[in-house]
Design brief:
CATH class: Mainly Alpha
Shape: globular
Structural class: mainly alpha
Number of helices: 8
Order of helices and strands: HHHHHHHEEH
CATH architecture: Up-down Bundle
């Protein structure tokens, strides 16, 4: 029976992918199941959540939290690489590859919302738009064309924006022993607003590309 091939694969930079090649070979050799790596991404996200949540009392945790956000992304990449390399890719694996991502997004933004460095409502709006952006990206796959990963605020860039907000907040705190307010908003407030705005742009682009792909598919039949 032919090996299963995923119907959609997220474009990943070759430099980032190269960091997981040794780990992929090791996981295949040790027979580590890709599902275990998918679950590990939730653990990394939960640690990031805890760090954000407690950073109001221990500001240095703002330095640590983004590192676990990136570890979450790395595990998200590694599970797919191991699945393909070990011949364990499957429809079930595609579901387990996506579901932890959605759980991780909510966990991380909930931790940011309750960090004490921002308005909690903006953190939850960022979580909501992160989910909507991923959901819109899956529309194409659901209706028989490609899944869309395009747009300025895909999953990695949401984490990069959060990382910038966290480290800028920490840097200003170490400099002035307070949270920087730009107008009535803090740095993390602005970071989450940028994420929301970027998600709106990303959803618009993804919907436009999905509609164009559907029209092209209809015209070819």
């Amino acid at each position: 029976m032919a090996q299963y091939e995923p119907t959609s694969r997220r474009p990943i930079g070759e430099g980032f992918r190269a960091t997981a090649r040794i780990a992929t070979a090791l996981c295949v050799r040790l027979n580590v199941h890709p599902d275990a790596i998918s679950y590990a991404s939730i653990v990394a996200a939960a640690i990031a959540t805890f760090c954000f949540w407690k950073s109001g009392l221990h500001p240095w945790l703002l330095f640590i939290a983004p590192l676990f956000c990136y570890l979450r992304l790395w595990f998200n990449m590694l599970d797919g690489m191991v699945a393909l390399a070990s011949g364990k890719a499957s429809w079930r694996g595609e579901i387990l590859n996506d579901l932890p991502d959605r759980v991780s997004d909510v966990l991380i933004f909930a931790g940011v919302a309750h960090s004490g460095w921002m308005n909690p409502f903006l953190g939850y709006w960022a979580a909501l738009f992160a989910l909507l952006t991923a959901y819109v990206g899956m529309f194409g796959q659901a209706v028989g064309v490609q899944r869309e990963f395009s747009g300025v605020m895909s999953k990695p860039w949401r984490m990069v924006t959060l990382h910038a907000g966290a480290w800028l907040t920490l840097g200003y705190f170490w400099w002035n022993h307070s949270a920087l307010a730009l107008g009535d908003l803090t740095i993390l407030d602005w970071a989450c607003l940028i994420i929301v705005a970027g998600c709106l742009q990303t959803m618009a682009i993804r919907l436009r590309r999905i509609m164009a792909a559907l029209q092209a598919k209809s015209a070819s039949h």
